[in-house]
């Protein structure tokens, strides 16, 4: 089981998702090679790391991210919902996360948008990454094709990837049209034929989101190049050790 372990929103089964606490905990795990995170823009154009379009679920605030200035966002408590030990944990800016992760782990940065909600998001994210010379340490992914096309137009050197939870017949054509070399796909859509097809096109595949040990081992057996995205890096580690014990059993 040599499949890369991708920590989904950090070590989010333990720490509050998309926070520095979750990212730091993930980076403490030797098996974690990648971290996946979500980025939107504040009203004043600051790229902020948060999944939902509102603050309601993961903070003590309410309202839309895109209608709130960064100076107000950074005051919110994004940790209390996960437990007393995370009271006061903040929503980080993308810049803060990049600074902490630079040279330690690679990043799958999801451009969290729909339609024309965030026309300036790709440029804002690319600016932050370029400032730190991390172009080759990140992949920009999104469900929204417009965001991927814009990112590639601005920064052809960046790796980009489509996120999808389906397997349409024209998947390869879509990826080629968008110039994507990465595919983030719901794990139930992954099988050997998909991996063969993507390898032929030199497209890296990541399966999301896998928290069950048995499913991890089944997916790992399909292809060692398949990246496994999980909320539970500790479960990935258990699956790895169980597979290793089976392989080396006398």
UniProtKB/TrEMBL annotation:
One of its GO terms (biological process) is lipid metabolic process. Gene3D superfamilies: Phosphatidylinositol (PI) phosphodiesterase (3.20.20.190). Signal peptide: none annotated. The keyword DNA damage does not apply. Pfam families: GDPD. InterPro entries: GP_PDE_dom, PLC-like_Pdiesterase_TIM-brl. PROSITE patterns: GP_PDE. GO terms for molecular function: glycerophosphodiester phosphodiesterase activity. Residues 3-240 form the GP-PDE domain. Transmembrane segments: none annotated. Its EC number is 3.1.4.46. Keywords: Hydrolase. It is an enzyme of class 3 (hydrolase). This is Glycerophosphoryl diester phosphodiesterase. It comes from Paenibacillus amylolyticus.
């Amino acid at each position: 089981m040599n499949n890369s372990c991708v920590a989904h929103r950090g070590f989010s089964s333990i720490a509050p998702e998309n926070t520095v606490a979750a990212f730091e905990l993930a980076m403490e795990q030797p098996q974690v090679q990648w971290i996946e995170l979500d980025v939107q823009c504040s009203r004043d154009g600051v790229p902020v790391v948060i999944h939902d379009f509102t603050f309601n679920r993961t903070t003590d605030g309410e309202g839309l991210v895109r209608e709130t200035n960064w100076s107000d966002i950074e005051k919110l408590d994004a940790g209390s919902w996960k437990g007393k030990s995370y009271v006061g944990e903040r929503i980080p800016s993308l810049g803060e996360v990049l600074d902490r992760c630079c040279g330690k782990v690679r990043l799958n940065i999801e451009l969290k948008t729909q339609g024309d909600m965030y026309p300036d998001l790709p440029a804002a994210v690319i600016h932050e990454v370029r400032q730190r010379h991390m172009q080759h340490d990140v992949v920009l992914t999104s469900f929204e094709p417009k965001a991927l096309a814009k990112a590639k137009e601005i920064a052809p050197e960046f790796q980009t990837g489509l996120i999808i939870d389906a397997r349409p017949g024209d998947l390869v054509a879509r990826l080629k049209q968008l110039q994507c070399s990465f595919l983030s796909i719901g794990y139930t859509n992954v099988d050997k034929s998909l991996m063969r097809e993507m390898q032929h096109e030199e497209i890296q595949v990541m399966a999301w989101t896998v928290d069950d040990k048995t499913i991890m081992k089944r997916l790992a057996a399909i292809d060692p190049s398949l990246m496994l995205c999980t909320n539970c890096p500790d479960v990935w580690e258990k699956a790895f050790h169980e597979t290793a014990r089976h392989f080396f059993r006398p």
